[in-house]
Specification:
The structure holds two protein chains of two kinds. By secondary structure, chain A is mainly β. Chain A contains no helices and eleven strands.
């Protein structure tokens, strides 16, 4: 996961609050992915971008979730309003055939 | 469609035991196949890969052979160590026009005891 930076590493918030997760990918990769991991559902692809353009957001659970990639070196995943069932580890990854994952953000919504 | 089915866990082995984690896939074209490993508190990292039939991927003593006839990519290691305790994910990728995402299995948790 060297080079893919995610922040914050841990986030605890209350239901109804807005949450923004950030990803700073390795340079030189045109594709960026957001995943969610839970014990119940495993690893789920939420959305991915090619050249900063969203290609497939069919995995985004509902309208409360949104993702942006304003440039090649930054992406955000926003949840507004957050709910307890959003509690999970969220990963950002880059790459094409082989993906490089960040360390993840552990989100807890109380 | 594309999908990956891997062996249910958890798997618990003694140190130096032989490991096999089964993985089978369904794909519409000619996928590349991967094994990723996730150590506690970390993101996934690539363990090994194979891009065409009969290729063998290997790394850190782990091996997997791309078997097109059985649509399988089983992970093996001859002698596991405590440090191999992790969750292992089988995955496939079909690079199509505008689509290059990975399809992951559900993961298999391995615990190796001394």
């Amino acid at each position: 996961d060297a080079g893919v930076i995610q922040s914050p590493r841990h986030e605890v918030t209350e239901m109804g609050q807005e949450v923004t997760l950030r990803c700073k990918p390795i340079s030189g990769h045109n594709s960026l992915f957001w995943y969610r991991q839970t014990m119940m559902r495993g690893l789920e692809l939420l959305i991915y971008f090619n050249n900063n353009v969203p290609i497939d957001d069919s995995g985004m659970p509902e309208d409360r979730f949104s993702a942006k990639m304003p440039n090649a070196s930054f992406s955000t995943l926003k949840i507004q309003p957050s709910e307890p069932r959003d509690s999970a580890v969220y990963f950002c990854a880059v790459g094409r055939n082989e993906q490089f994952f960040g360390p993840g953000t552990r989100l807890t919504v109380l | 469609g594309n999908s990956v089915t891997q062996m249910e866990g958890p798997v618990t082995l003694s140190e130096e035991a032989f490991l096999t984690i089964n993985c089978t896939y369904t794909a519409t074209g000619y996928p590349s196949l991967f094994w990723y490993v996730q150590y506690p508190g970390e993101g996934l990292q690539l363990l090994l890969k194979a891009t065409k039939a009969d290729d063998k991927g290997s790394n850190k003593g782990f091996e997997a052979t791309y078997r097109k006839e059985t649509t399988s990519f089983h992970l093996e290691k001859g002698s596991v160590q405590v440090s191999d305790s992790a969750v292992y994910f089988c995955a496939l990728s079909e690079v199509e026009t505008g689509a290059n995402n990975l399809f992951f299995g559900t993961g298999t948790r391995l615990t190796v005891i001394p």
